[in-house]
Design goal:
By secondary structure, this protein is mainly alpha-helical. The protein has one domain. It is built from 20 helices and 6 strands. The strands form 3 sheets. It has a two-stranded antiparallel sheet. A two-stranded antiparallel sheet has the order 3-4. A two-stranded antiparallel ribbon has the order 5-6. The protein is globular and about 65 Å long.
Length: 461
């Protein structure tokens, strides 16, 4: 009787969350790692799928998974194993890949997509190096001076925008089969609110598995029509090899491709700051100061450059996994590293990639209702807990411009430099405008503090 009580106690989740997952045991840590892998998988493999199907650039899904896993482990090593972040494929660079695929003058004339891909990767390598420059600047001048430009009135709305920008994708995916998306959403809610023990801390994983098993059974029984958005097909799985090596592509460097890809780093660095702020607010740890924004930027940048060196996409810290942290309240970075190891191992299996492809997109849509919403909720929490005074006109103006820009510039903003078109994403535009307004408008009421905790700033008296 006492052993059962002890077991229940081990599974108790304190209000401040679990920071050492070893108390849960190795089997539960593996399941939690699997949950993080499922959270990142859909978006991570979507990037190479888009590159192949829409832009004709043949990037390998297996290589993408390998780079996500290795990039995450490298990031954790460079950040002293402290930050529970997962690095997956960056969507911000899709516009750059599209631009490179459309280049048709000079050396790019009559090139196939397969021939253009190495040049796009070369641009990504240089973009990743931009992170290193910014990391060096922060190291030299200090994080306090840099964060003076990024108070909660800027980072809060940016975090809110990250979730809201992703929201339309949720509706598109869920609309493929509303009842299946609803089942995924209901499973997560029930597991997280009324679940006991392990069930309570793996709601995302259950939100994928339960509707998938239901859809699979109904598909096998012939209840679901093959044309339905809930149908599960194993044709791709049967045709794939169980074990197979990744396809590596070495980058090539050309100034036109570099001018297209490298400036995108401006946008992704702003997103990085927002993501690290979100993870800090979620876990109650100030990762901006410890291990330091310079280290997190260094890890993100090197992961991006090394990924492109072997044929993978740019990497970025994933908001989906921040949502998992918020929902499970298990903040141990070791769990995320387990997810990275899963990604590396599974990158050697074409068959597994096809199994994941068999998951109906409606399930991903249902799960994303929670994940993306949690990101925006974290942004609101960041604003509230740091006591941003929205009765002041300057703060309202900054927040308003950020939100409208992030949601309004749906196609980004394009401009031409040296005959090359460069596109800033909506989030980059919002971040730049927010930073500029905060710097020039009078009446600043926050000062960056170095204390550990979610409150990075305190009102000046």
């Amino acid at each position: 009787m006492s052993s059962k009580g002890e077991k229940r106690e081990k599974l108790h989740i304190p209000e401040e969350g679990i920071r050492d997952a070893r108390q849960l045991g190795i089997p539960r840590m593996l399941v939690l790692g699997l949950q993080h892998m499922f959270a990142m998988f859909g978006a991570t493999v979507l990037v190479p799928l888009i590159l192949v199907n829409q832009y004709g650039l043949p990037m390998s899904i297996q290589t993408t998974l390998l780079c996500a896993g290795l990039g995450t482990l490298l990031f954790h090593f460079l950040t002293k194993m402290k930050v529970p972040a997962f690095l997956g494929s960056s969507f911000a660079f899709l516009g750059g890949f599209s631009a490179v695929s459309n280049l048709d003058s000079g050396i790019f004339a009559n090139m196939t997509g397969e021939e253009k891909l190495p040049y796009a990767l070369g641009g990504v390598v240089i973009a990743g190096l931009f992170y290193l420059v910014m990391a060096l600047i922060i190291k030299l001048v200090g994080v306090r001076r840099v964060m003076a430009f990024l108070p909660p009135v800027v980072t809060g709305p940016i975090i809110i925008s990250i979730g809201l920008i992703l929201a339309p994708n949720t509706i598109v995916d869920a609309s493929n089969c509303w009842w299946l998306a609803g089942l995924a959403l209901l499973t997560i809610i029930v597991a997280n609110i009324w679940g006991k023990g392990m069930v309570k801390i793996i709601p995302i994983l259950l939100g994928v598995l339960v509707p998938y098993v239901v859809a699979l059974i109904l598909s096998l029984l012939g209840v679901i029509d093959p044309t339905s958005g809930a149908y599960v097909s194993f044709e791709g799985v049967r045709a794939a090899q169980v074990v197979g090596l990744q396809q590596f592509v070495l980058p090539k460097f050309n100034i036109s491709a570099i001018l297209v890809m490298a400036p995108i780093a401006i946008a992704t660095m702003m997103e990085h700051v927002g993501d690290i702020s979100a993870i800090s607010a979620t876990t109650g740890k100030n990762f901006v100061e410890d291990p330091g924004l310079h280290r997190t930027l260094l890890g993100d940048g090197l992961a991006t450059s090394l990924s492109a060196l072997i044929g993978g996409p740019a990497n970025t810290t994933y908001g989906e996994n921040t949502g998992v942290l918020a929902l499970s309240r298990v903040y141990d970075p070791a769990v995320v590293r387990i997810a990275a190891l899963f990604a590396i191992v599974l990158s050697f299996s074409p068959a597994f990639a096809q199994i994941i492809h068999s998951i109906p997109t409606a399930i991903i849509g249902g799960v994303s209702f929670i994940l993306y919403g949690m990101i925006s909720a974290i942004g609101v929490r960041n604003v509230v807990e740091n006591r941003v005074d929205l009765s002041k006109s300057r703060n309202v103006i900054i927040a308003a411009v950020i939100l409208v820009s992030a949601l309004g510039f749906t196609n980004g903003l394009s401009f031409t430099i040296g005959g090359t078109t460069i596109t800033l994403t909506s989030l980059a535009i919002a971040a730049i405008l927010g930073i500029v307004l905060n710097a020039v408008l009078p009446g600043k009421d926050y000062e960056f503090q170095g204390e550990t905790g979610v409150q990075f700033t305190t009102p000046q008296k």
